[in-house]
Amino acid sequence: MTLTDQQLDRYARHIVLRDIGGPGQARLLQSHVLLIGAGGIGCPAIQYLAAAGVGTISVVDDDEVSLSNLQRQVLYGEAQIGQPKVAAAAEAVARLNPDVQFRPICERIGDATRPDLLESVDVVIDGSDNFATRLIVNDLCIAARAPLVSAAIGQFHGQIGTFRGWEDDAPCYRCFVGDAHDPDDCDDCATQGVLGAMCGLMGSFAAMEAIRCLTGFGENPKGKLHIFDGLKPAMRTVNLPKDPECRSCGG
After folding, report:
1. How far is CA 63 from CA 43, 195, 201, 230, 248, in A?
2. Residue 159 is assigned to a structural domain of this protein
3. Residue 74 lies inside a defined structural domain of this protein
4. Are strands 234-239 and 224-229 parallel, antiparallel or unpaired?
5. I need a surface site. Which of 11, 119, 152, 209 has the fewest CB within 10 A?
6. Separation between Cα atoms, residue 42 and residue 59, nearest integer Å
């Protein structure tokens, strides 16, 4: 792929990075990232992926913009209240970067979700709010052999990991969380609260990890979980083992 003069100017700060360069930017322009959720994590991730020139961004979300979203979901304003989030996100991406094709998918992930949702997808970012959705997405990613960047937030804390469970030496998301929980349960920011800036931090982190998967810069992230404590603040990284008995990726 040959970059146009306008693209060389727009993405110049990527192109001068030795670990991305022109070939890496060309890969971004030809890549497809699927986001699960256009909420607190999805909003900043969408912004940075669009600004980076990811060629196709698909977003799955069946929710509408509400006033209480605006404290942390920075793609939206009061004018979008009541509008489907994927429609509002499409408008924002069109303003941010005309190079990007945006695909809004106004539906909810469930048992009936078809594997072809991941057709042509290079990386998936999951910012959903319950284990049931996350585990379905995990299984879809394993079947499609698509890297899964999973990010989560709660109050003043966040965590993120990149999962490649189809590989013999890499855990999947189910290896991490297991099955000993209510799959519909997750901390609810409506009752627990969440620092808006923490959403920005983890959503941007998720975009960076997706770009890492697409361009190959830096260290291989598989099997690593990054945990951020905003109260200290501090971050630590733990290595996750593959569960040989995992019913998603084991044996």
Report:
1. 13, 21, 22, 28, 28
2. yes
3. yes
4. antiparallel
5. 119
6. 8
In a domain, 13, yes or no: no
- Whichever domain contains 166, its CATH number is 3.40.50.720
Q: Is 152 helix (H, G, I), strand (E, B) or coil?
A: strand
Annotated catalytic residue: which of 175, 189, 199, 213?
Answer: 189
Cβ atoms of residues 60 and 46 within 8 Å: no
CB atoms within 10 A of CB 111: 6
The residues, ordered by sequence, that sit 6+ positions from 143 with a Cβ below 8 Å of its Cβ are 115, 118
The domain in which residue 85 lies consists of 31-239
Rounded to whole angstroms, how far apart are CA atoms 45 and 41?
6
Percent of the chain with pLDDT over 90: 87
Residue 189 among the catalytic residues: yes
> Whole-model pTM above 0.70?
yes
List, as one string, the DSSP characters of 14-41. HHTSTTTHHHHHHHHHT-EEEEE-SSTT
The pLDDT tens digits of the residues spanning 61-93 come to 999 999 999 999 999 999 999 999 999 999 999
Residues contacting residue 76 through CB under 8 Å, at least 6 positions apart: 43, 65, 69, 70, 85, 88, 92
What total of structural domains would you count in the chain? 1
145-155 residue pLDDT tens: 999 999 999 88
Task: Give me the residue label for tokens 């999951």.
Answer: 126
pLDDT tens track for 18-50: 999 999 999 999 999 999 999 999 999 999 999
Q: Is residue 114 part of a domain?
A: yes
